[in-house]
Every structure is written in C-alpha cells, then in structure tokens.
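Before relying on records like the one below, remember that each one covers exactly one chain. Contacts with other chains, cofactors or solvent are not represented anywhere in the record.
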Amino acid sequence: MRRKILNVFLLVAVAIIGLAFAFGQFNPRQEMTIILSLGLGIIGLAGVFISVILGINLVPNEIERRTIYTILSKPVQRYQFLCGKFLGGLLTVLSNIAIMGLVFVAVLFIKQPHLNTEVVKGVVMIFFQLTLLSAVALFFSVFLSPFVNFFLTFAVYLVGSLSSVTESMASDPDHKKNVLVTTIFKVLHFVIPNFGNFNIQNPIIHPDVQIVNETTYMLQNIAYALIYTAILLVVAVLIFDRREV
C-alpha cells in the first residue's frame, strides 16, 4: 500500500478491463473476442510492471534503509531473508492478479452469465509467468542496482516472450554455416526463461487453434516455472551469501 505506483497500475488495469462494455457495436462473437484479448492482455501487462517494480527493489531497498543489518543481526539466515522477500513480493503480485482476475470474470459474467473456466486458466498461467519473472528480478537485485535491473529484467522478459523466434533462428538453414550465430541463438533459447509458453490466450480466443492436451500443457509449464524459479533462488542465495552488505 505504500508503493503508490503499484496502486496506479492496478487501478488503471481494473478501469480498462471495465471498459469492455464499450465494444457493444460489434457482434457477440467479435465482442467477446476483443474483451478476452483485451482483458488477459491488460492483466498480463500490468502484472509484468508490478512484478518488475517490486522485484528490483526488494533487496536494494533493505540495504539502502539499512534495515537489513537489524534483520540479519537476529537469528535469521540469509536464505531465509531472501526467500521471505521473494514470497512477500509474490503475495503482493498474487493479490493484484486476483483483483484484476475477479473484475475480469465479473465483466464476462455480466456479458454472458456463466463462469468462463478458460479465462480462469489464462489468469492462472499469467500468475505463474509472473512468478518466474519475479524470480528473475530478485536474482538480478542481489548484485545489480534497481536502474540496471529494471532494463535487464525487461530485456529478459522480451527475449523470453519471443522464444519461438530464437528457436527458429537457431535452426535456420541460412545460419547453419555460421556456428557462432547458431550457438548464440541456441544459448538464448535454452538459458532465457521461456515466457511465451504461458500465453495461452490465443487458443482461448481462437478455438480453432487447440492445444492437444491442455491440462498436461499447463502442468508442464507450471512445473517449468517452479523449477526455474527454484534454481534462480538457489543461485541468488549463493551470491547473496558471498556478498558484503
């Protein structure tokens, strides 16, 4: 509540989702397509900004205010401090996503009085995408300033959202002779978190594009997010243990 900028993102996102009623001039199918695309897109975009702004400041703020010395002087291990900051930030992200998701579901329910479970699945996948993004921001915050971290985390998010592009570039026949270019794209594809897999809006909005087994697809990506997040937290703890604060 002290970070007013987060409240601005939340209120703007909720307000824009509420503007879904402005598309009444379209036929019902077109209207629902636009509302679904707009709602999930806004929730995802607002969530990205909230996650990054929270994540880049979790550790530096404690060091700048010197409260970290008071905390670590007590029987609190550094890994406990770092994991606690991460879980606290993640809880804030969850509360914001939950509010936006509830508003979005309410708007859809008014339009069509039934619970759209596909939208719920989309919001759940957005949350796990933001869980991974929060871990990236926290990882960089251990050894980078918030200013540098902001741009670097966004760069990782953008590249990770274009994972299909990096994969195609790595296997492009035109680059086969250039081992260096191919290697760079392969490293980018496998090292950078794959944020694109969490965007299941297209199969939701366009039913003609179906995932073969949606449940398996979702569980695989949720497991991917949790495992990658755990790895980032472990590495962040190792770096933070060796840092003088």
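The chain has one domain: 4-241.
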